[in-house]
């Protein structure tokens, strides 16, 4: 249950570093979805610190979590795939993989009822930049995802 006594459904937890090129794609998606009217209880912008947002996630109390992040999956830049979180722990697909084992272990132990999936967007470049600068391919893929997600939430 969340603060108003209602059960919460899906929570998007978006990760990224806005100074590392395509690594910012999760933040780009979160900000666009919030501009479309989605609330903090629907889309959580976690930056690079997934573990640091555990208490907020517990407060929201979703029935499922979709972690949105840049990934290295061997796809074409901008292509995306939803996978089981166990693949991240075993293969290190996320660009923020050092947070995943702790987060997943904690959530599985404390909240085994919460379904957790990962939506990875293939990066082209994670070079340092002064501001959020996505490659054209990743931006195109992100905008397509925003359209899909926005129409379903």
Gross geometry: globular
How many distinct beta strands?
Answer: 5
The Rg value, from CA coordinates, equals 15 Å
**What proportion of the residues form beta strands (DSSP E)?**
15-25%
Largest β-sheet summary: 5 strands, mixed
- The structure class reads alpha/beta
Q: Which regions have little confidence, pLDDT < 50, spanning 5+ residues?
A: 1-7
Secondary structure blueprint with pairings:
Blueprint: E1 8-15, H1 25-35, E2 43-47, H2 54-60, E3 62-71, E4 80-84, H3 85-91, H4 100-110, E5 115-122, H5 136-152
Parallel strand pairs: 1-2, 1-3, 3-5
Antiparallel strand pairs: 4-5
Question: What would you note in describing this structure?
Answer:
There is one protein chain. The chain is α/β, with parallel strands linked by helices. It contains 5 helices and 5 strands; from the N terminus they run βαβαββααβα. A 5-stranded mixed sheet has the order 2-1-3-5-4. α1 links the parallel β1 and β2. α1 crosses α5. The longest helix has 17 residues.
State the gist of this model.
Helix 1 (25-35) crosses helix 5.
Features:
153 residues; alpha/beta; 5-stranded mixed β-sheet; 5 helices; 35% helix; disordered N terminus
């Amino acid at each position: 249950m969340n603060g108003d006594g209602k059960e919460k459904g899906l929570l998007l937890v978006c990760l990224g570093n806005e100074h590392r090129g395509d690594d910012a794609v999760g933040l780009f998606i979160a900000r666009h979805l919030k501009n479309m009217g989605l609330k903090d209880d629907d889309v959580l912008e976690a930056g690079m610190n997934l573990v640091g947002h555990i208490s907020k996630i517990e407060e929201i109390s979703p029935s499922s979590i979709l972690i949105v992040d840049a990934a290295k999956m061997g796809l074409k830049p901008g292509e995306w795939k939803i996978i089981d979180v166990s693949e991240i722990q075993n293969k290190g697909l996320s660009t923020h993989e050092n947070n995943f084992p702790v987060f997943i272990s904690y959530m599985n132990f404390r909240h085994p009822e919460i379904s957790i999936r990962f939506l990875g967007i293939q990066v082209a470049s994670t070079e340092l930049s002064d501001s959020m600068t996505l490659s054209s391919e990743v931006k195109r893929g992100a905008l397509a995802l925003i359209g899909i997600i926005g129409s379903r939430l």
